[in-house]
TrEMBL record:
<dbReference type="InterPro" id="IPR018641">
    <property type="entry name" value="Trfase_1_rSAM/seldom-assoc"/>
</dbReference>
<protein>
    <recommendedName>
        <fullName>Glycosyltransferase</fullName>
    </recommendedName>
</protein>
<dbReference type="Pfam" id="PF09837">
    <property type="entry name" value="DUF2064"/>
</dbReference>
<dbReference type="InterPro" id="IPR029044">
    <property type="entry name" value="Nucleotide-diphossugar_trans"/>
</dbReference>
């Protein structure tokens, strides 16, 4: 499985940042600090806290794999605190802390800062998409060459990817985050914009999302036995 982010590493008191000067593309990666009993609560209801944590660590490693060689600046936004020595290589990924009262505000702040730093195309993803590949993200950046926005719809009514060339704060306001209305309400704001829609994909929230996928079977032996 490779390196596992399973211990709280030394906390960096400063923001870890870097610049890939040759790219005008910025990838924002929103992640939750992987700690036992936190995160993936709906999944944990079925598989238990330890398995839920191992599954999330597996998904984090997958996200590292599909983004580490991407031609873009990449910044990992942590939910709780910045971990200096973890699976996110400081030479490849900038590191910052999410700020804001809810998910919408946190994403808005990250996009706004990116555009203030003069990036031309900015895309945000989470860290729990097993169906996502490096090629998918490259396709999304390419779609922004001829579109103003790009959206990756999730099967649960949200989205797994959002990208834009200009900051649009309305996309992050007045949404019921974590519900099946997020995608619909987001697309309503974009009805007069030039938008590219990617393939609908499934993120990992429930046991049913992974029970038939071979890669997750090692984490489910205690349920399937």
């Amino acid at each position: 499985m490779g390196i596992i982010q399973d211990n709280k590493a030394e906390r960096d008191e400063k923001v870890i940042d870097f610049t890939l000067a040759s790219s005008n593309n910025l990838l924002l990666i929103f992640t939750r600090n992987p700690e036992l009993g936190k995160g993936k609560r709906r999944l944990a209801d079925t598989v238990g806290d330890e398995s839920a944590l191992k599954i999330y660590q597996f998904l984090l490693n997958h996200t590292v794999k599909i983004t580490c060689n991407l031609y873009a600046e990449k910044i990992v936004y942590y939910s709780e605190e910045i971990w200096e020595n973890d699976i996110w290589d400081n030479k490849r990924f900038g590191k910052k802390l999410q700020t804001g009262i809810n998910l919408g505000a946190r994403m808005a702040n990250a996009f706004q800062e990116g555009f203030q730093n003069e990036f031309q195309k900015i895309i945000i993803i989470g860290s729990d998409m097993f169906d996502l590949s490096q090629e998918d993200i490259e396709q999304a950046f390419k779609a922004l060459e001829s579109n103003d926005f790009v959206v990756g719809p999730a099967e649960d009514g949200g989205y797994y990817l959002l990208g834009m060339k200009n900051y649009m704060p309305e996309l992050f306001n007045n949404k019921d985050w974590g519900t099946e209305t997020v995608l619909k309400d987001t697309l309503a704001h974009l009805k007069d914009k030039k938008i590219a829609l990617l393939e609908t994909r499934n993120d990992v929230d429930y046991y049913e999302d992974i029970k038939d996928i071979e890669a997750f079977q090692p984490f489910l032996k205690h349920i399937n036995s």
